[in-house]
TrEMBL record:
Database matches in PANTHER family: PROTEASE M1 ZINC METALLOPROTEASE, PUROMYCIN-SENSITIVE AMINOPEPTIDASE-RELATED
Annotated Peptidase M1 membrane alanine aminopeptidase domain residues: 281-422
GO molecular function terms listed in the Swiss-Prot or TrEMBL record: metalloaminopeptidase activity; peptide binding; zinc ion binding
GO cellular component terms attached to this protein's record: cytoplasm; extracellular space; membrane
GO BP field: peptide catabolic process
Species, as recorded: Hwanghaeella grinnelliae
The protein's name in its UniProt record: M1 family peptidase
Region called Disordered, residue ranges: 645-664
Length: 664
């Protein structure tokens, strides 16, 4: 269906005077919603029978495009006053536990496809899909964090609805389709999506797994169903049974990746991409445990994204092997090294991903903290504690203190010091290998290692590997002061010592451990930007691309870098710029490509991002993908598709030292 006019949403919200369900007695409003959508006219009608705790005055929030035209309780009119999005409904006859509200409005039209970024916060409608998320207040929001509901949707035409909640029934009618969804557990208000979907289904271990895909990507359905089933099985074994009856993957008309209870909502252009089909899908599946199965106490910090990153993203890396897991931890530390000090906040202050800096803290650092926590108390106690946390807080709201309590109980240890230093305060320690000394007595050797830490003092468990003539010795030392010396007894002469070689400690990387990456520039508060050449079309596209990479770039003429910088030009202009304004050779991608972006540090140590393209179209094709490669030192493109990417090799770490000259 093609909409050539705004779609009118008629909301008749009918609260009938009936016995109070157990959920309402427990403080959860219960919605019994009926929706009718006419594909030919584009009209949507909603009837919501809501049961609430008795009150004489009720304030609800509705989207500003909705207008209440009637309110009554058991046929008796109620007083209605509006202030913006807030509606105050009053009963002159004392408390009521049911009322009728009728409202209608026009759903805002979705912008054209190339202008839909950032639309996901409100309801919107277009020919390729209608988007009515719970937080858009398309039904009255009483302020309750959790509700229960039954949602019946009738679609007149060929479109298909999908909503959060369990599928109770589906019926093909003559020229229409009807489906019923329900949530008899406390959860967020229902989210409803309608579109020209091809639906594919498979029942796996009792869970109904579906894809609702637009026709051009319907061929991806089998892959998504198989992968979703695998992830559900893996996470259920780790944590506990999958908490819902259904799981849906829905293609969206918006360029988003959003998680809802028993559902993930993914932009139709994103669905075919490799990253979405793998690790990102695992992340979204796991949110059905963390974030949707156990709610988040946002007032004390969002623990969910970090725990999900640890179990999903990092968990998949661990399944690939220790090298992949090590590389992910190192990647987290590289991202943190690029974070400006002014953006370094406590983990407990993170609530949601609003920019790249918040992802570094709320996702990466938090996941690394869970890695250290598992090392601290051991995998058995960690698994036991996480499973207990899940069982105790399923369909409840939980805070960091609840995770701490579960892991303290499982391990039998006081972990207040751990959570205080890692969750409650910003920053990270900086470790240095201050001194090494080898002593030999008879046939025995003793290695004395002095470690220092800068900044606020942390209690750290630091891995040390000593390579000897016979074997590699693995030790762990406890560092809690500014400087401590540790002695390691050895059977044979030590050849080399490595401190935290696998990046198990969340810390500030030292020079030599952290090559430049795109985030060194994109996270910087002050970035100079330069476009080389005189073609105005190229320059306009380059400015738009720079705006996607940096919040507030300062445009400067061609000159040597004096701080973090972005320089964009064609191949000849880039070569000329490097020759005229840089004092040394710089690395660049090895592969030949039509377009590339790569980083280096100027002789003064400033991170610089060079972006090369043949023409304006080449710049435009990098507009969407390039910002997603912040953890890379370089990336090359052909027709907007990444063909090569990577991180520059580093020199030997300052935390590694050759001991062969210290033999005695």
């Amino acid at each position: 269906m093609t909409f050539n006019r705004p779609v009118v949403l008629f909301c008749t919200l009918l609260f009938v005077l009936i016995g109070l369900p157990a959920h309402a007695e427990s403080g959860f409003p219960h919605h019994d919603v009926q929706v009718v959508f006419d594909q030919k006219t584009g009209q949507l009608g909603v009837t919501d029978r809501l049961t609430i705790s008795p009150t004489a005055n009720l304030t609800v929030v509705l989207a500003d495009w909705l207008e209440i035209d009637r309110a009554d309780a058991n046929g008796v009119p109620l007083s209605v006053d509006r202030v913006g999005r807030h509606w105050r409904i009053s009963s002159a006859n004392g408390p009521i536990d049911a009322l009728t509200i009728s409202a209608q409005g026009t759903v805002p039209a979705m912008p054209p496809a190339d202008q839909r970024r950032g639309v996901s916060g409100a309801a919107a409608d277009a020919w390729d899909g209608s988007y009515l998320p719970s937080y858009a207040a398309w039904i009255p929001d009483t302020g309750a964090a959790h509700v229960t509901y039954r949602l019946k949707v009738r679609i007149d035409g060929s479109l298909r609805p999908v909503a959060t909640g369990r599928i109770l029934s589906e019926t093909d009618l003559d020229g229409a389709f009807e489906a019923v969804f329900a949530a008899d557990y406390p959860t967020e208000a229902p989210s409803l999506f309608i579109g020209p979907y091809t639906v594919t289904e498979r029942i796996v271990d009792g869970t109904r797994i579906r894809t609702y895909f637009h026709e051009e990507i319907a061929g991806s359905a089998d892959h998504y169903i198989t992968q979703s089933a695998d992830y559900i099985r893996i996470f259920a074994e780790m944590i506990g049974a999958y908490p819902f009856d259904d799981f849906h993957v829905v293609s969206a008309p918006l360029p988003v990746g959003l998680g809802f209870p028993n559902m993930t909502y993914i932009g139709r252009t994103i669905v075919p991409l490799p990253f979405m089909r793998g690790r990102s899908l695992a992340h979204e599946v796991l949110h059905n445990w963390w974030g949707n199965g156990v709610g988040i106490d946002y007032a004390t910090g969002n623990w969910s994204e970090g725990l999900t990153t640890f179990f999903a993203d990092y968990g998949l890396a661990e399944r690939q092997g220790p090298d992949a897991a090590r590389e992910m931890r190192l990647g987290w530390l590289r991202d943190y090294a690029a974070l400006p000090t002014s953006d370094d906040t406590p983990v407990s202050a993170f609530t949601s991903k609003t920019h790249q800096a918040s992802q570094v803290i709320g996702y990466n650092k938090t996941a690394h903290i869970f890695h250290m926590l598992r090392l601290e108390i051991g995998p058995a106690a960690f698994e036991q504690g996480i499973r207990a946390f899940w069982n105790d807080h399923r369909f409840k709201t939980a805070a960091w203190k609840d995770i701490q309590h579960a892991l303290e109980t499982a391990s039998g240890r006081d972990l207040d010091w751990f959570f205080s230093q890692w969750v409650g305060q910003a920053g990270a320690p900086e470790l240095t290998l201050a001194e090494t000394r080898v002593e030999q007595t008879g046939g025995k050797h003793t290695l004395h290692v002095t470690l220092r830490q800068k900044g606020p003092l942390y209690r750290l468990t630091v891995p040390i590997i000593v390579e000897t003539e016979g074997e590699a010795i693995h030790e762990q030392v406890r560092l809690s002061s500014a400087e401590e010396t540790f002695s390691i007894e050895l059977e044979s002469a030590p050849l080399r010592v490595r401190v935290d070689p696998d990046f198990d400690v969340f810390r500030r990387l030292l020079p030599g451990e952290s090559p430049p990456i795109l985030r060194d520039i994109t996270l910087a508060r002050n970035v100079d930007a330069t476009v080389l050449g005189s073609d105005e079309g190229f320059a306009s596209a380059a400015r738009a691309l720079t705006g996607r990479l940096s919040k507030n770039p300062t445009w400067v003429p061609k000159r040597a870098p004096t701080g973090p910088a972005i320089v964009i030009g064609n191949s000849a202009d880039i070569v000329s710029y490097v020759r005229d304004h840089l004092e040394s050779d710089i690395p660049e991608p090895v592969s030949e490509s039509a377009a590339a972006a790569w980083t280096f540090r100027s002789p003064e140590g400033h991170p610089v991002l060079l972006i090369r393209a043949i023409d304006t179209a080449g710049i435009e094709r990098m507009m969407r993908p390039l910002p997603h490669y912040g953890s890379r030192s370089y990336v090359t493109f052909e027709d907007g598709r990444a063909t090569d990417k990577g991180v520059w090799k580093t020199t030997d770490s300052p935390l590694s030292r050759d001991l062969s000259a210290q033999k005695q």
